[in-house]
TrEMBL record:
Domain Signal transduction histidine kinase subgroup 3 dimerisation and phosphoacceptor: 197-262
Residues in Histidine kinase/HSP90-like ATPase domain copies: 310-406
Keywords: ATP-binding, Kinase, Membrane, Nucleotide-binding, Phosphoprotein, Plasmid, Transferase, Transmembrane, Transmembrane helix, Two-component regulatory system
Source organism of this protein record: Streptantibioticus cattleyicolor (strain ATCC 35852 / DSM 46488 / JCM 4925 / NBRC 14057 / NRRL 8057) (Streptomyces cattleya)
The protein's name: histidine kinase
Known EC number: 2.7.13.3
Amino acid sequence: MGDGYDPGVDRAMPRPPWPRRLPSPVWSALTWCAAALFALLLFVTTTSRMGPLPLPSHESVSVGVLPREAMAVASALALGWAHRRPLPVFGVLLAESCAAAAVGAKTWPFFLVMAVLVGYLAATRPRRTALAAACVELAAWPCQWWAMDQAQEALSDFLSMMAALIAVVAIAWLTGNSVRRQRDYGQALRTQALTAERLRIAREVHDMVAHSMGVIAIQAGAAGLVLDTRPEDARKALDAIETTSRETLAGLRRMLVSLRRADDDTATPPAAVGLEAVDRLAETTTDAGVRVEVHWQGERRPLPPEVDVAAFRIIQESVTNTVRHSGARHCQVSVDYGDEELAVEIVDDGRGAGRAGARADVRAGAASGSGYGISGMRERVALLNGLFSAGTRPEGGFRVAAQLPL
């Protein structure tokens, strides 16, 4: 489609947990069913004083059933909106419990439902709101107990019921708060993952494009200078520009393809560029006018992919900075394969001062230095728990060094 929509992305999206797959009308229907059950429970418990779930007697039906039917219906209507307006519904139920206590009816169903609402508030509303609702509910119970002239009953009954209410409200609040914390933690993880992915993509794009654009700019300038006097040299510069641009476009295409793959388990990731490309990097940079010498020390062997890629990107970015900023004519790259670490060093004979500022030493993420390229190299080394330094040399030029644990 012309708008860039990819239907494969939607097909590859993971299914959410089953509660979130239920449409809003289903949740509304479930809420109203719960409200109807609560109305029935409330009607049964408020039409008699004998036991927790008695059937209404003939006298209670003839005297007080109609007002209590109205109370049950009103409570059900209020509870039906609990999913969308839990705090107002909590206030309505609290007021109705006070009205029920005033006429001598049982109020424990109200407090049971209000405890559930406390848990819902703890999961969906600010923590202070849920705590305030819990405190109000716990304070309302003893007030209604004494208002119903039950002070003559045993103090142990009051204490046991109060303890039970405290336990129910506490469990509801802790459950809701746990749901909230899990949701916040999941959101924080998703945000952190997105940030890390953006930084990774930014580093890759910067390292890939910056070097190529630097080489292209130098070759284009050289071609313009010798276009009339030395057309063969100008042609070579234009050929180098074409080759560099094609390689860069191919690298960007591979990156975009890897990012667009929806199924990471079955897709084969593109081969990452590692230290095997250093010689090619030195060749293209030398063609651009900065002679690059590469010195290999130690036994060259396969490296962990993350170390291999990081080492090459550090060398590439350092050489790019040499080409673009230093005015150097010579750059030396050293790669030392140690037993426990890989050491890379890049030095040039350019101006040095003014390129990246003061010296920057980093282990596991220290923040110093300046320049986006320096920051990208620093982040790569910090992710691998290595040591990074960049700064001017006393004898002139600039030096970048990194030690990457194997």
